[in-house]
Amino acid sequence: MSSHADRPSSAEAVPLTGFFGVFRYSRRALELVWDTSRSLTFGLAVCTLVAGVLPAVAAWIGQLIVDSVVAAMEAHREMGEAALWPVLRYVALEALVIALITLAQRGLSAQQSLLRALLGQKVNVMILEKAGTLSLAQFEDSELYDKLTRARREASSRPLALVNKTFSLLQNAISLVSFGVLLVQFSPWALMILVIGALPVFVSEAKFSGDAFRLFRWRSPQTRMQMYLETVLAREDSIKEVKLFGLGTLFLNRYRAIFDALYGEDRRLTIRRDTWGFLLGLLGTLAFYGAYAWVVIETVGGNLTLGEMTMYLLVFKQGQAALSASLTAISGMYEDNLYLSNLYEYLEQPVESDSGTLTQGAIPGDGIRFEHVGFTYPGTDTPVLHDINLHLRPGQSLALVGENGSGKTTLIKLLTRLYPPPTGRILLDGSELHEWDIQTLRRRIGVIFQDFVRYQLQAGENLGVGDIDAFEDEARWQAAARSGLADDFISSMSNGYRTQLGRWFKNGQELSGGQWQKIALSRAYMREGADILVLDEPTSSMDAAAEAKIFARFREHSHDKMTILISHRFSTVRAADQILVIDQGRIVEYGDHDTLLAENGRYAHLFRLQAQGYQ
Ligand SMILES: Nc1ncnc2c1ncn2[C@@H]1O[C@H](COP(=O)(O)OP(=O)(O)OP(=O)(O)O)[C@@H](O)[C@H]1O
Fold this sequence. Notes:
The strands form two sheets. The protein has a six-stranded mixed sheet with strand order 6-7-8-3-9-10, with helices on both faces. Helix 3 (about 40-80) runs antiparallel to helix 12 (about 305-345). The chain is elongated and about 125 Å long. About 65% of the residues lie in helices and about 10% in strands. The protein has two domains: about 20-220 and about 270-350, ABC transporter type 1, transmembrane domain (ABC transporter transmembrane region fold); about 370-615, P-loop containing nucleotide triphosphate hydrolases (Rossmann fold). It is built from 22 helices and ten strands. The protein has helices at about 10-15, 25-35, 40-80, 85-135, 135-140, 140-155, 160-185, 190-220, 220-235, 235-245, 250-300, 305-345, 410-415, 440-445, 460-465, 475-485, 485-490, 515-525, 545-555, 570-575, 595-600, 600-615; strands at about 370-375, 385-390, 395-400, 425-430, 430, 445-450, 530-535, 560-565, 580-585, 585-590. By secondary structure, the chain is an alpha/beta fold. Bound molecules: adenosine-5'-triphosphate. Adenosine-5'-triphosphate binds near residues 384, 404, 405, 406 and 450. This is ABC transporter permease. It is a multi-pass membrane protein.
């Protein structure tokens, strides 16, 4: 649970103060909608205007109807007959106006639903395109990741909801102004009373909306934890452990506790908000009915016609309705604002530009060099690599050995430029990594990480992702699968390379851990152009026979390449040209197998320990 220290000071975190804060993102939402479809936005605006102005026009025609009826009745009394057309034309006109209002409302809802689909797609694409430009460090930043997930979840509904509410507010404001125009003819004072009466409830609604906005933002970590618990409790990949360890009740209780805490705050805010809303709203209603009584008195006194009274009656009733619709719009807007603030913070996240242009190094054939490389993960204080120096030439193999958490994978992440340049220098063919054109660099590296991805795609496509130029190339799939020892089991599946893998989709075939690893290994072999092969524990789930075969293949395949291998199995490590023993981010031993054994240090100790285990 978050402490008070996490609570952002309202001024700096959310400059959403005062009445206009509610409109903070309306302009941006409108721009977004405008960019999505100009014609639909324009149509929306026209319909809003029409639906806003016409009710006042209808009220005014109502007055004309009543007055002309009264006049016609008098004429009828005096002359025994009266022309009907002067009255009926107003009735026809009002029917027309009402038809137009209905048309405008239909137009609004039709255009809104079209825009919703277009906008959802547009925002989702924007979010995903941005995701492609983020660095790994940014993905690992929990706040940013949270923004990304929240942005995606409500991409299709929020921006349009905000625009709709802004428009609805506008429409009601137009109605209110046009009612005001009618009312001011009765008395400017009456209008003033109404405005003053309605103001407090608007201000309080805006204030509480702002409070709710801040509350929602501040407690985002708890909401995130709640979502995480939902995922753990209801996803196939975690349900095994949840069941076997009996975690269901524990997690569900935590889930409930978070809800209870959040609900308490919600409840306090809702009660305060609605109590004030009611009391101040009462003030507005009193003002309305005060003015209404005044109109009645004036009519009885003969200062207003019956038609005028009817019109004012309608104006008061509809004015009241427009007012409460505006309040509803305002109070719903804070959530939409919350969403959009999140979306824009995510979209405006600065990204590092990949400015490198080299497609060839200064010393071609020099290989990989690490010079005094140190590294600390962003957002942490403890360095995980210190003063790493190494040189790997084409045709050589390097094995990294070390305890869990010693920094082996981190070293690979630096080599593949997943993190920005650390202290020291990493060079490929004599040029620093950041000088290289990123595409060229990535094409030269074939890597499988421990946590490789199990794509819920066809078996062949799972290999094809290793080289997008050959994504659909069946012959290449097969060649890669043969090198990675995946060919046999893929061919034996019902649809061969076209078999859907994983359990997410219909007829998906789940694989064993070792089979998945063979798929990942074959994926690395897809990258034919790569001359740097990096395998991070590629065989940890494989049986001993498969492992031996894999490495025999690997040696055949890699004679002119640079290969880097991370493994806890010394049987595979011992064949490497160079072995690097890392301990707590430092290189403690460096040499080939025989040299290191002769040194009788940590490597020799670990090697013997494992050898004993196998006896
Ligand atoms: N994304 C990250 N952010 C912060 N710290 C990290 C991150 N990834 C790893 N670390 C820390 O960096 C250290 C080195 O991790 P690394 O994954 O490089 O170890 P490793 O040697 O590959 O371990 P293993 O043998 O278990 O795979 C560990 O202490 C780990 O806690």
